[in-house]
Amino acid sequence: xxxxxxxxxxxxxxxxxxxxxxxxxxxxxxxxxxxxxxxxxxxxxxxxxxxxxxxxxxxxxxxxxxxxxxxxxxxxxxxxxxxxxxxxxxxxxxxxxxxxxxxxxxxxxxxxxxxxxxxxxxxxxxxxxxxxxxxxxxxxxxxxxxxxxxxxxxxxxxxxxxxxxxxxxxxxxxxxxxxxxxxxxxxxxxxxxxxxxxxxxxxxxxxxxxxxxxxxxxxxxxxxxxxxxxxxxxxxxxxxxxxxxxxxxxxxxxxxxxxxxxxxxxxxxxxxxxxxxxxxxxxxxxxxxxxxxxxxxxxxxxxxxxxxxxxxxxxxxxxxxxxx
Length: 324
Known about the structure:
By secondary structure, this protein is an all-alpha fold.
């Protein structure tokens, strides 16, 4: 499993982050990319909202969770992305891609499109989306890119989502065991539901910190170790059992230092390519990446590598256009 995890990581870096720069590098390429993106955006929003409204008011499940299982996810927005939390990843990625689309065609950002995408991410009723918006707020404060209007919107979203019954249930089965974990309680006796995959690695990491084992805390326990720890603790589970929250997996497997390097590696290309760019435009690029980065830390997904590849290709193309 450890070897396979290394293969996946290398594949994500080269296929998603590096290769796009060599495949998408002309005006024809970007015209086609954004044309296909707009089609996916319209189709996803149309069928996503149609499915949500029919499920909410007509008790009709237009789109199942997956084609093969026909599972009803309930009255939650999920569109064509499958799981609601994965729909949240798709929606925030769409916002970032839409920002790039507007920059490319030099058109004004349509606030209604941003509103529809943002509202849909909230309607997923996903705890992962709540974490994504919290991460976004933290990043905007760290990078000093927070404006009062945006700060107010994010705070309202976070408090509004915190009040959802579904998220309150997760609070009861996640936050309370986490506090017990800090007090040294054995997690084996607690009914942790799906979030057990996140708490077991966290408990091991906390135990290492309490025992002054700082090397794995800062440098990690190695690729595949989070799944191994979960397999040891989840009865009858002998397959891939990675944490659902990517930030926990990053901290456990790669450590605090590598997590900081990972975040910096997503931001540095923007700093490099936009060093001579207008401040407002630079902030838009940074915001789009922080949006994707925030949802990546909340949900296990390769979307950050995908967007990094598209964004660096776009910035490289723009730089060439300016020189010529």
